């Protein structure tokens, strides 16, 4: 490793620094001394091809598997309700929906420790295999209690992927490339997941084959698909830059040097109790987690309840399932547009606020307009789905640009995504089944209030970061343990 990448960490006692390392850690300007633009593009594209597609594939099947419950119920609901006795008590379907997120939240941070210890390939690949096995088991259950239990086990295994993938991406790219890469990884998954409604409807036509209902075939076939994809993941997932085997030594040095010049944390650091408590006490991470939670509430609500919302609008039968897909095909447009705004123009707070406004406008359109404005209400679904899904990768990538040290990156990914799990619980509880015919008013109002508050959070962070950068420039205040670090707003 070159002299340009020695670590600096005032907060935890490491203070040695080489002058060449003082560059884009100040903010948006990146100095790549010693490397030509052609070299940087070539290596970056090589990383892009190996890292992003396989992570997208795994997250795609993860998103499909966690939302298959709503698709199975929409496609073959009468048989599912009867065979599992889902209508025999108070909100049994809602319980099955939200129980997924309890282990998902609890095991986020331990999953990040395992990622570093065992490596991304095996940790993420095996997690995918085991939740695929669980998914297949859904097709053979006979009671609603078994449904709830398996949903909890599914959450235990799926908790490894999303925070692990975002942490892995943040370790490969400079800050000015994080939003676009994280968004591309997320959006590719969401688009394919949106099309899964059509796939689920087609699989449900196997109803009666082999003595199994259509909803059971949805889980069985998707479980088998997941285990196959897990095998692909265990072959192609790349590890952290310091362990990468697909790069030449000079290419690996280029990656590590760019990271070091950007934020001086290319080398991994061990998590200690002192570091852990300092991260817990970092207030800005909790604000980022809330912003992510807000976007997740709208995203999960639409994922789990959109077929029923479309039914309430007046789209019946086949239409209520097939019309789930088009809004997700729209997602890449607002998502990539705001990701470019965030990365290229360093307007992260503005990008998230614009998407939040889309969520508010779209939610009001599909929930508040009268039944005579059917086209406008469906257009509102597009706007709300686009805004909420666009904000998920933006929120976690902005959090990653505001910190240093790999141990803190792992913790941040875990705590922010854990709040995404909390958002799933909020969606499951607030979108009350008995209010379905009225358009879920409780859930809609909670979504609107949380989204409005997230815009205020973005404004608060924007002001705070600018003031902190000014104090660092004027008074020499050290940010994130590095004298040259500056927040990106």
Automatic annotation (TrEMBL):
It is found in: Membrane. The keyword Transmembrane applies. The keyword Transport applies. Residues 54-470 form the Major facilitator superfamily (MFS) profile domain. One of its GO terms (molecular function) is transmembrane transporter activity. Keywords: Membrane, Transmembrane, Transmembrane helix, Transport. It is a multi-pass membrane protein. The chain crosses the membrane at residues 51-72, 92-110, 122-141, 153-172, 184-203, 215-238, 285-306, 318-342, 349-369, 375-399, 411-432, 444-465. Coiled coil: none annotated. GO terms for cellular component: membrane. InterPro entries: MFS (IPR011701), MFS_dom (IPR020846), MFS_trans_sf (IPR036259). PANTHER family: MAJOR FACILITATOR SUPERFAMILY (MFS) PROFILE DOMAIN-CONTAINING PROTEIN, PERMEASE-RELATED. This is Major facilitator superfamily (MFS) profile domain-containing protein. The lineage of its organism: Eukaryota, Fungi, Dikarya, Basidiomycota, Agaricomycotina.
